[in-house]
Write a structure and sequence with these properties.
Length: 126
């Protein structure tokens, strides 16, 4: 009986741990412009018009200003959230196929200063 209970607890812990890990990568948040997607720390996420589905076109200086939302090796796609392999070898989260980024000028959770930059950066929406 104890062995069965221990196995059940271990399975529950594994399932809950995985769910908690997945839930912290991307969340829905509120902003002055409505519902948006955020990273686990509440920082706003953005999409780039020059990307195509499943392809990032933001590298070098662009990626320094617009850090890609990286996925760990253990992360798994879920629903509308996928993972692409960047040409630099990193794994990046996507939403409905579009790569997701943060913006280096957003200083605190809830900042949305990257929305509309150069007309090609936009808040990611759920």
């Amino acid at each position: 009986m104890t062995l069965k209970l221990s196995a059940a607890l271990a399975a529950a812990t594994l399932i809950l741990g995985t769910a908690a890990f997945a839930a912290t990568a991307i969340q829905t948040g509120s902003s002055a412009k409505g519902k948006i997607l955020t990273d686990g720390a509440g920082m706003s996420l953005y999409t780039f018009d020059k990307d195509t589905p499943a392809v990032s076109n933001c590298y070098d200086d662009c990626a320094a200003k617009w850090p890609p939302l990286l996925a760990s090796k253990r992360a798994k796609p879920q629903g509308a959230f996928g993972i692409i392999l960047r040409t630099d070898g990193e794994r990046q989260w996507t939403h409905k196929g579009m790569p997701l980024y943060t913006w280096f000028k957003d200083a605190a959770a809830g900042d949305i200063t990257g929305d509309g930059v150069k007309g090609v950066w936009h808040l990611a929406r759920p």
